[in-house]
Amino acid sequence: MPRNVSYKNLILLVILVGITLLVMRFTNLGRNQLSPMEATIKDSLSPVQGVLMGVSKNLRNGAESVASLGRLSQENKSLKDKVAELQGQLYLQEELKQENERLKTLLQYQDQYKSNFSFKTATVVGRDPGNWFGIVTLNKGSNHGIAKNMPVVTPLGLIGRIVGVSKNTSQLMLITDPRSGVGAMVQESRIPGVLEGTTSGGGETRLIHVPKDTNLNKGQIIITSGIGGTFPKGIPVGRIVDVSNEPTGLFRTASVVPFADLHRLEEVLIITTIYNPEILPPTEGD
């Protein structure tokens, strides 16, 4: 028998069963007992009725499951959005925590040396990717009392001086820039020299013009000497990591790594006034 004919017969049977059950329902109203024929028909159709009820129940459960899946999908999306929002808040809280710690350290430094200097706190707002250890842009300018040649420090040590000023920004030349020159000396022996930046771009400096017969060794601390008038005397700069002789044979050179992390500058202190240049702040070796 063709498949479509069997489907038609099945559909017809279902319709007949439905009509019979419906008729039996209405004819049963008001009677306490079924007729023998009705009872026989009802009993014979009971398995079919059970199948139909099962199919109906499965269809209803299936529809409820589909609706439930839709709700679960929406709830899952809402939960993911909430988790992302909470993660963003955690990241922001951590950033604020780190910023507060940095600013607290700056305030402690200012309070410690307020009898020596007055400061302006500034934030790094720009760097040249091609000259990372050269010029840095700060968010304070002449409107905030900033002028050329003002020294710039962090609580760890000297980082440079102001070389250009606009109304609301200033240009900071780091001590690692090859054009930079700082009067410096070895803290332990008081041997003077000039600290300059290098062209290597590695964030180091070097102490030059040190007489060959002087005691220059790894680990010694370099501080500002005050010679030249731009930088106050006694500000810590860095530590010697290597010593070599200059080609002329008359002087020695020392490679110096700054105490301040010039690669990750965020907030800095600009020294706007020097009250008493003879009172030196303590350095790491004191």
UniProtKB/TrEMBL annotation:
<keyword id="KW-0133">Cell shape</keyword>
<protein>
    <recommendedName>
        <fullName>Cell shape-determining protein MreC</fullName>
    </recommendedName>
</protein>
<dbReference type="GO" id="GO:0008360">
    <property type="term" value="P:regulation of cell shape"/>
</dbReference>
<dbReference type="InterPro" id="IPR007221">
    <property type="entry name" value="MreC"/>
</dbReference>
<dbReference type="GO" id="GO:0005886">
    <property type="term" value="C:plasma membrane"/>
</dbReference>
<comment type="function">
    <text>Involved in formation and maintenance of cell shape.</text>
</comment>
<feature type="domain" description="Rod shape-determining protein MreC beta-barrel core">
    <location>
        <begin position="124"/>
        <end position="271"/>
    </location>
</feature>
<dbReference type="Pfam" id="PF04085">
    <property type="entry name" value="MreC"/>
</dbReference>
<dbReference type="InterPro" id="IPR042175">
    <property type="entry name" value="Cell/Rod_MreC_2"/>
</dbReference>
<comment type="similarity">
    <text>Belongs to the MreC family.</text>
</comment>
<dbReference type="InterPro" id="IPR042177">
    <property type="entry name" value="Cell/Rod_1"/>
</dbReference>
<dbReference type="InterPro" id="IPR055342">
    <property type="entry name" value="MreC_beta-barrel_core"/>
</dbReference>
